[in-house]
Automatic annotation (TrEMBL):
<feature type="domain" description="D-isomer specific 2-hydroxyacid dehydrogenase NAD-binding">
    <location>
        <begin position="108"/>
        <end position="287"/>
    </location>
</feature>
<protein>
    <submittedName>
        <fullName>D-glycerate dehydrogenase</fullName>
        <ecNumber>1.1.1.79</ecNumber>
        <ecNumber>1.1.1.81</ecNumber>
    </submittedName>
</protein>
<dbReference type="Pfam" id="PF00389">
    <property type="entry name" value="2-Hacid_dh"/>
</dbReference>
<dbReference type="GO" id="GO:0016618">
    <property type="term" value="F:hydroxypyruvate reductase [NAD(P)H] activity"/>
</dbReference>
<comment type="similarity">
    <text>Belongs to the D-isomer specific 2-hydroxyacid dehydrogenase family.</text>
</comment>
<dbReference type="GO" id="GO:0030267">
    <property type="term" value="F:glyoxylate reductase (NADPH) activity"/>
</dbReference>
<feature type="domain" description="D-isomer specific 2-hydroxyacid dehydrogenase catalytic">
    <location>
        <begin position="5"/>
        <end position="319"/>
    </location>
</feature>
<dbReference type="InterPro" id="IPR006139">
    <property type="entry name" value="D-isomer_2_OHA_DH_cat_dom"/>
</dbReference>
<dbReference type="Pfam" id="PF02826">
    <property type="entry name" value="2-Hacid_dh_C"/>
</dbReference>
<dbReference type="InterPro" id="IPR029753">
    <property type="entry name" value="D-isomer_DH_CS"/>
</dbReference>
<dbReference type="InterPro" id="IPR050223">
    <property type="entry name" value="D-isomer_2-hydroxyacid_DH"/>
</dbReference>
<dbReference type="InterPro" id="IPR029752">
    <property type="entry name" value="D-isomer_DH_CS1"/>
</dbReference>
<dbReference type="InterPro" id="IPR036291">
    <property type="entry name" value="NAD(P)-bd_dom_sf"/>
</dbReference>
<dbReference type="InterPro" id="IPR006140">
    <property type="entry name" value="D-isomer_DH_NAD-bd"/>
</dbReference>
<keyword id="KW-0560">Oxidoreductase</keyword>
<keyword id="KW-0520">NAD</keyword>
Amino acid sequence: MKKHVVLYKTLSAPLMQRLQERADVTLIERLDAHGLDQLRAALPQAQGLLGASLKLDAQWLDLAPKLEAIASVSVGIDNYDLDYLTARHILLTNTPDVLTETTADTGFALILASARRVVELAIRVRNGQWQKNIGPEHFGTDVHGKTLGIIGMGRIGEALAQRGHFGFGMPVIYHSHSPKPAVEARFGARYRSLKALLQEADFICLTLPLTAETQGLIGAEQFALMRTDSIFINISRGKVVDEAALIHALQQGQIRGAGLDVFEREPLDPASPLLTLDNVVATPHIGSATIETREAMARCAVDNLLAALDGQRPPNLVNPSAFDQGR
Ligand code: DGY
C-alpha cells in the first residue's frame, strides 16, 4: 500500500510524478492561514512530510501520530526539535552539498554589492540622480586583496574561502570549533580566535548553523571589536546575530556596512531600521534560490523521503539514532 505524504512545498512536474508513483500525496501550495488549516487537517494521516520554511515543533507534530519521516528542503535544521523527533523515531533529512556553491555565490554577491555600493548607486541611477560623474562620497572600497574573515568553516565557509583565495587574492582567516589543516593547506587560510578575527578582517562573513550555542553569538560586544571600515555579511541565520546591536553598530558607524540575506524575523518587517540605511544590502533569504539549486534540493529531499518511507537509511539522515532505535 502507498504511504501518505504531505507536501508543503510545490515540486516540479517530474518530481511530483516520481513522488506520486510511490506515495499518495496531499499538496499544500501556500503556507498562508488557509494552507496552515489544510496542513492541520492533513497531519493525522501523514507518514511523510516534505517542505521548508516552517517551524515544525511538537505542537504541530503531535497532530501526526503516523509520521515516519520529514524531508526538509534545506540544509539548515533549526526548524526542528531533534530530541523530540528522535524520541518518536521520526527520521529527519536535509539537503546538504547541492546548495553549497550557490550559497557561497550569494555570500560573494553580498560582499561585492556592499563593498562597491552596487544597490545604493544603482537606485540613484534609476531615480535619475546620475547627472555628473560620481565623486568620493560615493566611492566604494576594494574587495580584491582584502582580508576575508569566515566564521564557521563548514562546506559553505570553504566554498567562500575558495572564491576569496583563488578569485580575489584575499588572505583568508577563519574561526570554527577547531582548526582545519586541509582548509589551511588549500586556501592558505589561518585560524583565529573569534575576537582576533573580528578585529582583523575586512569582511566578516557568518556561515554558521543556528544552534543553542550560536544564537546571539554576534552582539554589541562583538560589533565593538570590528574595525570601522569592516563589512559584515550574514548568509547563515538571522538569530546568530543580535539585530538591535547590528542596527546600532551601523547607525553609529562602528562598521562600514552590511550585506544581509537572513534576519531575526523573516520576512523582514518593512519598517525595520535596516531598510533606512544606505550602507545595508538586504536580500530576502536567497542563499540557495536559483532555479538549478532549488530543483536539486527538491530532488534530494524526494530521494531522502522515498528511501525513508521504504525503510532504508536515507542518504542525508540528520538523526541516525532515530533510525537505529526504530529498527
Ligand atoms: C537552507 O537550506 O538552510 C537555506 O538557508 C534555506 O533555508
